Amino acid sequence: YELIFRLGQKIERYFETKVEHFAPYLLKDGLVIRITKFRNNQEKSDKVREVSRYRNRYDKLEERQVYFTDGRVIEHFGKGREDKLAQIVTDTKYNDEQVKTYTFYHTYRQDGLFQREVTEWELKDKYLEREDNLCSLRVQFGVPDKKFGPAEDEENSRIPRKILKLVEEFKAPPDEEPSKNIAQRVYDMEEDSVKLTFHREKDRILSRTITFHKPQEGQKEIGMEDIVVYMVDPRQTPPSINYLRKLYKEQLRDHIAAVNRAKETETQVSQLIDRRLQEEANTHLSVGLFDTKRNQRVQSGRERQERERKEREKSEVDLELDFLAPFLAKYPKDLTYQQALQVREDCLMSIKAGMKEKELELSGNLDSLKKEMVTLTIRSADDPTLQEEVQSKKFFINVVETRVKRHLQYAADLVIKVEKKIRTDPRLG
């Protein structure tokens, strides 16, 4: 039944197409359907496209499309991954350069990341529904600086690439004037400059821009010679130097946050690539909770319960066999009829006395609780705050009464069981 097909697989052939069906859990990678499109209808023709669909994969991979002529691979993932990955599109160019585009379930991510495009020297992020209105981030990398010194561990040997340029784009807040908010911010590390482009005003073609260059050595603050301001309307009053200096300090502070965000993004990309390689090398399939045949946790749990049950039965049997041991130790191995009767009576009296002692202890606790209940009831008539304590005492009284009833039933059953066991014990003849 679980194999679905004969031997768990079936092949269907159509014009220039082959469809392979596999039963779930038959293959280690979870493959259930593979559709292959060929260039022509010959048996050994070149592959044009291949679609593979998976099920029950732990990494949530559901489908992989491979376009052999275009050098494109598309992977679709279901919801439930820790990194909220939804899709990976890998395009291989003619110069063997790869462009990877990652798509995420952005509503489940705290940073609102929707799409990430990664090339060898560039990284582009697109965001949605962020509180800071950031909608895109583009990072250009360069060759990392060489470090001289002793060799590091292989895990820590990855040198972060040098950041050459950072470009951030923001959407305009709906309730504010567009021309007062930044639309694009460019940090150029090679030229030590910051270029700000503001949102376009209504009925305007161009936008206001401000470019800051790093002050020369010896200057404590930036001067007008280091600032380039472009005003769309030349009749407008240019911003004052104090406003520009304050704005420049804000950009320097935001520059640190932008660089940290870019470094964190590069780390996330590296970790995601390593994770995907590990997932493809060691594919694991998820098993349902009620699939007792394949679920190792369920099997181990049942084996543990069965083992505990056998040990419990064994201990109960051992306990029953030891009822007579303390009383048989007083007499020689061969007992007379009178000695056997005495051993039986002593054993039953000891068990009944133990049960009676436990009953008296529980009854004493019950009586003390009832006396406290009466006292609290009298006090609660004058002090309403004691009502909660009265209810608590009632609860404990009900618990103890239930324990007394259960103990009486257990004691009666135990005496009958022990008496039956003693009468059939071969040691008493």
Architecture overview:
With 429 residues, this protein is α+β, with helices and mostly antiparallel strands. It is built from five helices and 16 strands. It has helices at residues 241-281, 296-321, 325-328, 337-380, 387-423; strands at residues 9-14, 17-22, 31-38, 47-54, 61-67, 72-77, 85-92, 98-104, 113-118, 122-127, 134-142, 162-170, 182-188, 193-198, 209-213, 227-230. A 16-stranded antiparallel β-sheet has the order 1-2-3-4-5-6-7-8-9-10-11-12-13-14-15-16, with helices on one face. A hairpin with a 3-residue loop joins β9 (113-118) and β10. α4 packs antiparallel against α5.
Mean pLDDT across residues: 84
How does the helix and strand content classify structurally?
alpha+beta
The tally of beta strands, per DSSP, is 16
Q: How would you spell out the order of helices and strands?
A: EEEEEEEEEEEEEEEEHHHHH
Low-confidence stretches: none
How far is it from the N-terminal to the C-terminal residue, by CA?
A: 59 Å
**CA-based gyration radius:** 40 Å
The shape, in one word, is elongated
- Helical content (DSSP H or I, runs of 4+): 25-40%
The biggest beta sheet is recorded as: 16 strands, antiparallel
Strand order of the largest sheet: 1-2-3-4-5-6-7-8-9-10-11-12-13-14-15-16
Total count of helical runs of at least 4 residues: 5
Strand percentage: 25-35%
